[in-house]
Amino acid sequence: MLTNEYVKRVYAQVEKRDGDQPEFLQAVSEVFESLQPVVEKHPEYEKAGVLERIVEPERVVKFRVAWTDDEGKVQVNRGYRIQFNSAIGPYKGGLRFHPTVNEGVIKFLGFEQILKNSLTTLPMGGGKGGSDFDPKGKSDAEVMRFCQAFMTELCRHIGQFTDVPAGDINVGAREIGYLFGQYKRIRDEYSGVLTGKGLEFGGSLARTEATGYGLCYYTQEALRVLKNDSFEGKTVVISGSGNVAIFATEKAQALGAKVVTASDSNGYVYDPDGIKLDIVKDIKLGHRGRIKEYAERVPGAEYHEGCKGVWTVPCDIALPCATQNEIDGESAKALVANGCKVVCEGANMPSTPEAITVYQENGLLYGPAKAANAGGVAVSGLEMSQNSYRLSWTFEEVDNKLKSIMENIVANSLAAAKEYGHEGDLMLGANAAGFVKVANAMVAQGVL
Ligand SMILES: NC(=O)C1=CN([C@@H]2O[C@H](COP(=O)(O)OP(=O)(O)OC[C@H]3O[C@@H](n4cnc5c(N)ncnc54)[C@H](OP(=O)(O)O)[C@@H]3O)[C@@H](O)[C@H]2O)C=CC1
Ligand SMILES: N=C(CCC(=O)O)C(=O)O
């Protein structure tokens, strides 16, 4: 609940101005609740208007994307790039291609990205972009033509020292390659303007694995510090079967857990013997199939239509890795009833406020997305470092840096939580720790 007058006043402005953007309001509300003890301790932030400024993007770019499909029919989509905050570095954040994309969704993602990027301690500001383009069912040629049309406009606004996009939902290696090629063609510039690039043209080893691996490094460290426990012998429920889910599964299994689920937007599979990741990779990475196929290929595995049921599967640890608001209050209660003690978020904002309340009331270890899934953007930052050095580090070098960054995020979150009177609160600590660095930079740079 908001009680601090400054926080309440600014949030009321956001509600008035952006009332048609529910996901953005949800993201701001959670952060603002955490920041109340911070602004009370730092009156200089109110004097400098930091909250009023941090909730207003520095720039919103919205553009038409016209392209032709394989039948020669003209298609029109909307493109966005929201350059939210550059106080601590160039704008940095993913691109999402999904029919649900609108300005409010990109603003929630971009706002989360500001604090997430700060937590990595790397010099990256916050931004996000994407389009309502749906790659599902499109040919490679159609995806290429869309990406080329999208980048033809976007390239006016980005650059290695200005704004560095990367992947997110439905933007993977294929899309980044097409986007990179078009940027290079138009700007005649060979630079690290995107991350998640192919290894042949400046990509970083371990970037593909980074978000999922980082989620598990974060969870493992939080379990060690707070519960003197680990993944060893635990049953884990994971949602999604894309980039984050696949590599979270891989690392959780490597750390001794049994992962029993995977999902996509049609439904989920439950494998009591443990997910066979090679089969999931073949389905998803090999031929872009549906997760239903897993149950047809694996004896003993069950397929269930609809995604919500995944949260009724008994587990010790839940790692949501699909999309925002996939766990509501009812699903959170089901998790608790079935023994879940840990929820760490791989997806961005996958828990509703009601779900978070259930976690807190039942004493679950809750690792918020902006901290737990920061491994992806962290290795993106390391890709930018390698591009600047014009050299490549080994997988082990990058993976070791990633693990250290994620463990550091746990430590800094807990230190901030203690400083602001909420010892052990990983959500408040992450919001506070991420915010203070950005706020201090905004104060130092003047009112702009
Ligand atoms: N890629 C990255 O570097 C990072 C991603 N994230 C976040 O992680 C989450 C997953 O992203 P990523 O793995 O990259 O994306 P992918 O496109 O690789 O995978 C997304 C997965 O989530 C499922 N999904 C997407 N939308 C919905 C929906 N509305 N309902 C149910 N399932 C859905 C997809 O199923 P289907 O195939 O049927 O659509 C797919 O299995 C997102 O929240 C993203 O913002 C966070 C940090 C970094
Ligand atoms: N989609 C991402 C990754 C962003 C990036 O690597 O720039 C995220 O942090 O949500």
What would your notes on this structure say?
- This protein has 448 residues and is α/β, with parallel strands linked by helices.
- The chain has 3 domains: 3-53, no CATH class; 57-185, Rossmann fold; 207-362, NAD(P)-binding Rossmann-like Domain (Rossmann fold), CATH 3.40.50.
- The protein contains 17 helices and 13 strands.
- The strands form 3 sheets. The chain has a 5-stranded mixed sheet.
- Strand 8 (261-263) and strand 9 form a beta hairpin.
- The chain binds NADPH dihydro-nicotinamide-adenine-dinucleotide phosphate and (2Z)-2-iminopentanedioic acid.
Strand order of the largest sheet: 1-2-4-3-5
Q: What is the CATH C level class of the largest domain, in words? A: Alpha Beta
Q: Describe the sheet with the most strands.
A: 5 strands, mixed
What is the ordering of alpha helices and beta strands?
HHHHEEEHEHEHHEHEEEHHEEHEHEHHHH
- Bound small-molecule species: NADPH dihydro-nicotinamide-adenine-dinucleotide phosphate, (2Z)-2-iminopentanedioic acid
Poorly predicted regions are none
Q: In CATH terms, what is the architecture of the largest domain?
A: 3-Layer(aba) Sandwich
**DSSP helix count?**
17
- Shape annotation: globular
> What is the CATH third-level topology name of the largest domain?
Rossmann fold
- Count of extended strands: 13
Q: What proportion strand? A: 5-15%
Mean pLDDT: 98
- Helicity, as a percent range: 40-55%
Distance between the termini: 30 Å
What gyration radius follows from the Cα positions, in whole Å? 21 Å
Number of domains: 3
Structural class: alpha/beta
The CATH homologous superfamily of the largest domain is called NAD(P)-binding Rossmann-like Domain
